[in-house]
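Record type: monomer structure entry
Structure origin: computed from sequence
Chain ID: A
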Amino acid sequence: MFLDDQEIERKLLIQSKIISTGPSAFHCADCGFTTAYKHCLTNHIEAKHVEGFYTCEQCGREYKSKVALTMHVTRSHRDKVVPVHEQFMSKIRCKGPNDFSCSNCNFSSSSKMGIVKHLQSNLCCQ
């Protein structure tokens, strides 16, 4: 899956607001919020200090963070969401234990998830 320019800009903006003062001390450059976990600070910055929204493809609702959108989809649309790996099952060949390949090209991986990521990345002709 490729990131568009807007998503790249958003990620760079979030990273620019993270101040690390040690292995488990992260601070928000805008408001001073502090946490021991970088992912918590990333979620905070995305929700409080970054403009823009993530839109639900199922119903059109908008959320300030990717985490909030994921929670919404999981709770509200669980019956409509197909797990990622199931979307690509017909394109994955298993040649043996820890030996998977793409049915569209010569790409191979030691894990099924490696093939799924390959198919998602649009590097494959699908």
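Annotation 1: The two ends are 13 Å apart (CA to CA).
Annotation 2: The first strand starts at residue 18 and ends at 22.
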